[in-house]
Amino acid sequence: MKRFDDLPQPDALAANIAGIFKDRVTGKAAPATRFTLFDATGTVHEGGFGNAGAAGDPPGPGARFRIASCTKSFTAAAMLLLRDRGRLSLDEPVTRYVPALAPTLPAGRPEAPTLRMLLSMSGGLPTDDPWADRQESLSAAAFDAVLRAGVRFAAVPGTRFEYSNLGYALLGRVIEEVGGKSYPAFVTENLLQPLGLEETGFDPAAVPAGRMATGFRQTEAGWQPLPFTGPGAFSAIGGAVTTTADLARWANWLSEAFRPDAAEDGPLSAASRREMQHIHCVMTPGPGEDLRLRGYGYGLNIEHDARFGAIVSHSGGYPGFSAHMRWHPQTGLGVLAFENATYSGAWIPVTAALERLLEAALESETPAAEPPAAVRTLAAGLCRLVADGWDDALADTIFLENVALDRPYAERAADLAAIREKAGTPDVRNMKILPTDRGGADGGFGRFELHLPASAGTIVAKALCGPPQPTKIQSITWQL
C-alpha cells in the first residue's frame, strides 16, 4: 500500500491535481466539480470549484450529486449479498424472477440470460444509455408493460459484452423479489447503513436544503438547470445520490479487499468484493489505449494497464450529472469526482489525476524486495549451469520433472552452450534476480528473470516456478 503523504512532494502533487479539476470549470466542461483523492487510510485531499447551484459556490464536502451508473456497484454488491446468503444462484435465468421478459435469441431456441450474465454485461441486451437514463421513475407496472411488449436482444446471451442498463434494472427487480422490499430500501438497510454511508440515498427530494447540487445542460444561451427524477423501477441502474466523502469510503471498502491485512468488516466478504473486481466479460480495448486487458466485472470496469497493472473504475452519466470513481488496488490510491453537467465526462480529469498519483508512486518505489531463499538457490544453480557447464543432476535439483519431458536435457544443454559461447565469460558475482509477477505473492518472484552479465553481453534466463513445494522451475528460456 502507498500512503499519499509518502509520495514525492505531496503538497505540490495535490495542488497539481487540483488544477486538473479547476480547469474543468474554467474550460466550461461543467458549472462545478467536486473531487476527492484517497489512499488506504481514507480521504487525503479534496476540493470543489465552480457553481453547484443550490449546493453552493463552490460545492463543499456536504454537496450531494447524482452518481448515475456508479450506482451499479451497489446493485452488484446487493446481488452477491443475496447469493452469499443462499437466497439465489447467479446461474439461474433471470426469467425465474422476472417472467415478463421474453428472450428472442438464438433464433428458434431463445435462451434467457442468467443473473451472472446480466451482472457482467454479457446478457445480450443492447446498449441503451440514452433511453434508459430517462426511465428511472418508471413504475413497476409500467416496467412490466415494457417487458411484455417485447425487448430486443442484440446478441445471444453470454456471447459478448454489451453495456445494458436494462439488464441492471432487471437485477434491481430480482433484488426486490428475493429481498422482499424495494431496491432503495434493501440497499440502504443492507449496505449503506452497515457501512455508515449516511449521506447516500436514492431520492434527491429527500436531501436537506442547500445540499443537493443542481444539474445542468449546456445550451447556446448558457447552462440550463434540469429537473430531478425520483426513485422507480430503474433506480438500480443509476439512482444513487451521495457525497464524494461517502463514495470514497465505499470505493476504499471495495479496494481494501485486496490488502493482505484486510479485515472481514462490513456486509460483504473480502472474497466477494474481489469477485466484483475481476473481469467476467472481456472488452476490446479502444484505439490508442495502452492496455493489456479490459473487461467488466460485477458493477465495475477493470483495466490492466501496461504500466500500472489492474485499475478498477466506473463512470456515471445522467441528465444534469457526470461522475467517475477510479482506484488502483495494488497501491490503494484512488480518485473520484462529480460534475453537474449532462454527460460531461468526469472520467477525463479523474483518469488524468490517478495517472499522476501512480506515476508519483512509481517514482517513490523502493527497490524490489530480496528474493525468497528458494529462488536464490534456484538462481545460483542456473548460474552454475552457465559457468560450469550443464549437469543433469544439478538440473534435477532446479527443474520440475516436466522440464526434461517437454524438451530433453541434451537439447537444452546444447542451446545453453551456444549462448555461453557467444556471451563470453559470465560474471556470476554481479548476477541479478528480478521479479516479473507484478502484484503476485512472494514479492512477485514466482516468475523471475536472472540477469547474468558476461564479457560480450548479458545472459537472461526467464523462469516460471511451479506449484509444488519445494519451489522449482517448470519453464525456462534463455536469451542473450
UniProtKB/TrEMBL annotation:
Beta-lactamase-related domain span: 21-344
InterPro entries: AmpC-like, Beta-lactam-related, Beta-lactam/transpept-like
Signal peptide: none
Superkingdom as given in the UniProt entry: Bacteria
Xref: PANTHER family: BETA-LACTAMASE-RELATED DOMAIN-CONTAINING PROTEIN (PTHR46825:SF9), D-ALANYL-D-ALANINE-CARBOXYPEPTIDASE/ENDOPEPTIDASE AMPH (PTHR46825)
UniProt-recorded name of the protein: CubicO group peptidase (Beta-lactamase class C family)
